[in-house]
Amino acid sequence: MEVTQDLSIVSMIVNASVLVQLVMALLLAVSFMSWWGIFFKLFSIRATRLHAEAFEKDFWSGSDLTQLYERAPGSQDPAGSLARIFESGFREYLKLRRQPSLDVSIVMDGTRRAMRATFQREMDRLESHLSFLASVGSVSPYVGLFGTVWGIMNAFRGLANVGQATLAHVAPGIAEALVATAMGLFAAIPAVVAYNRYAYDINRLAIRFESFMEEFSNILQRQVRPS
Questions:
Q1: Is 114 part of any domain?
Q2: Is residue 72 domain-resident?
């Protein structure tokens, strides 16, 4: 390679070996998918948090539970996780209350199970795509490193046909190979940061939902307990 060879990023990508180019293309595609997942989860978690705050404000304002149940969004609003937990619990509560022979503990156990099942479905929805971000964050650097190692191997193999090896001969090939590592890090770092942040946010929402289920269960238990 000539000393005057163009060492711009685009030139190094174009002049890289086919395998290294394939690695770069894979990392670029993964990076785009990762950024899509990052923004998708950002808006999804934010909407769920805002809907939970709005529902809790309405719930604790003293609204009648039956009216609140009738206004529950159900499956029409994908961000209304807390409203759906309330809806499933109150629906089961009303169904069991129509059977006067049932004990209070049976009514409350059925109500809690209904809310817990909905809670699990909502957590599965919130945690969707997080595993992809975790995989991108853990695997991308190694994929980039593989492209780098392969490119450096080709650079040194090319020195076999050179009588006197100098830095000018080997540097461009190594620089081309290192672009793969840079792209691997570019894909991995945002994915790791986003995964850690979203995992924390989802854990906070889970605690919030579980606290609501306990408080709501206490309210229903006071209503169902015979005077």
A1: no
A2: no
